[in-house]
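ok trying again, last paste got cut off:
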Amino acid sequence: MDLGSSLSIATSGLNAIEYELSVTSQNVSNSGTTGYVSATANVSSAVAAGQGTGIKIDATTLNISPTLQKALYSQNAQVASLTTTSNSLAAVSALQGSTSADSGSTDTLSDLLGNVQSALTSLTSEPTDSTSQSTVIADAQSLTSTINTLSSTYTTQRQTAEDSVVSTVSSINSDLTTIGSLSKQIMTLKAAGADTSALENQRLGIMSDLSSDVSVTFSETSSGDMVVRTADGTELPTRPDQIGQSDTGVTLPSTTWPLSTSDSTVTADSYYAAGDSNSSIAGITLNGQDITSHLTGGTLGANITLRDTTYPQMQAQLDSFSSTLMTRFSNAGLSLFTNGSSTTQGTSTTEETPNGIVGLSAALSVNSTYVDTPSLLTTDSSGSTGSITAITDVLGTAFGTSSADVSGSLAAPSDNLGPTGNLSTGYSGSQGLVALATALTSNQASTISNASDNLTSATAVQTTLQTSVSNVSGVNVDDEMSKVVALQNAYTANAKVVTAVQSMFTALLDAIN
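nice, full thing came through this time. structure:
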């Protein structure tokens, strides 16, 4: 081997070592960065005419298991969804109390309804006692106040979910188009044979963020492009050219493309329905097509479900209970509860109050006639005071549990509820008032509990997956530092070869001269 070849080999070795040190340094500096995937520097022997000519620097590779990575992204979406759901429902949990016998709670609907029942029972013993009369009114007002507050909370949480949908769509757009921009750079560099590992790592970090917003998967093309799809396979473009459009029409990254939606003000009778011109809540569109139903999981999917399913059902349950409370008291001869207006309450299950029961729980109140003159509770139609006939009828029938008291027109509406008629309470309407109140609270408490329990389980799975991914893709600082020591020794050896060759060249030149 001549001196020139020796110098070439040693010099290429120094260049390769510098490259390997650079990759190792990048790994160590990012060891604490969430989602960072460790990189491996690849070198190989350069051979010409069957002889080694030095060291060749190959493409840097990322230590990634696509299967594990995709599983983690899916779990990220589930954990984010359950976290969003659990946090939102905490507001309802704080208001509704507990139906557990040992909870010590005294403010559930059934407790408050029981207070009204007890106050009415006491009034039958002292029908002319003003304190007993006022107690009935006070307890009835506590009941309606709680019902009003629950209804208001449902609407507030729905509005919060709607606002979050709009902001999350903007965040998803930003992540998608950032991925598109990075992919464009990666494809250009790959075509030129340049290293793309840093950009690929950055792109994976954005994918990790995106996976918390919505359930997504990804695939990579041979050219280095990344294709993002929803859990059901709907493609979410990261650049216009991925859907046959010109990239010049969109400045990347963008918060307004490719998904579009708009703000909506949520009320009890608001709803979203794809293709329904009367829908008061905007859908999420892609290239003019509504894809709301395809966007599941993550923060976005959770808020869509809270807005369109969870809280509307809770509202329907409470509206059904409020309507039944009014109907059964009125049927017993004591119109203690009203819709807060002079308009007669309608019975339609799909129209807004007062024409129907949608939103009734927000308007429910104690009849002002009795509030102003509590003694009317025990005044009969002839004007005689001290009558307990109406009170006895209420206790016997309004709070009754026999078939005659809970069926037919007296049964609580349980199906065809809500503005679109697609909701149900999830329990029988042929129950006594106290049982209905308990069923409502239990049903909603179960929804809240399930979200919390599922979050605990999903987080445990996420932690396990994160550990598995870290074992494959994470940075082991001790290993990296061992590489540094080995590379330093190799650098010293190659440097000595370069120095020796240079000395030989100098000696040769001196001899010639």
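cool. Residues 99-105 have pLDDT under 50 and may be disordered. DSSP finds twelve helices and 14 strands in the chain.
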